[in-house]
Amino acid sequence: MKRSKRRRRLILLTLVVTCLVVGVVVFKKLTKKPPQVKPIVTIQICTLSDADTASWQKVKKVSLDAVDYLIEVQQKGSVEELFQSLIDAGLAYGYGVDETSVASYNDSIGDEVISSKGSRLLGIKSIGVSDTNFMVADFDYGIKMLNQQKTELEPMLKKIYQAYQKAQKK
To answer: How far apart are CA 60 and CA 39, in angstroms?
Structure first.
């Protein structure tokens, strides 16, 4: 009789331990976070010179904490064409344009330039990063909430420019 009680206790203990192990494994799988998939955003870099275009084409992708940026490079024939691409594309940045060209373009555009998406152009904005400048179209979206959501572009452009510099050293 003693043996059967011992045996029952041993079977019961084995069953409890097995259930605990299975429970812990299932609990860990249920609480494990799914892998985070970063969104992929395509950014257009518009250049004027052949040398800048060739240099930028070496940069294919830039990964930041929350987003992966795919870099698409387009060479434009003139400053006006480059600025028009910035206005039309929305997520485009100009490279290799001097500040005087930006200032003269902003002076000449007038008040009522509307993008294809219906946003009013405030002007072309020059953003200084390290030893260079990027140009971006600055829009008034017409809705206060959307205008407040404009983010600071300098940190992102700094990372993109660092990737550009790294690609040049290779």
So the answer is: 16
DSSP 77: S
Structure tokens at 88: 């039309």
- Position 3: which residue type? R
* Beta bridge partner(s), residue 149: none
Which parts of the chain register pLDDT below 70?
1-3, 90-91, 110-111, 113-119, 121, 139-153, 170
User: Which residue has tokens 């009789």?
Assistant: 1
Burial of 112 (0-12, 13-18, 19+ CB in 10 A): exposed
For 58-153, strand residue ranges (E) read 61-63, 68-75, 92-95, 120-129, 132-140
Predicted TM-score (pTM) of the model is: 0.66
Cα 121 to Cα 139: distance, rounded to the nearest angstrom: 4
> What angle (nearest 5°) sits at the alpha carbon of residue 97, between those of residues 120 and 68?
70
Q: How far apart are CA 161 and CA 77, in angstroms?
A: 22
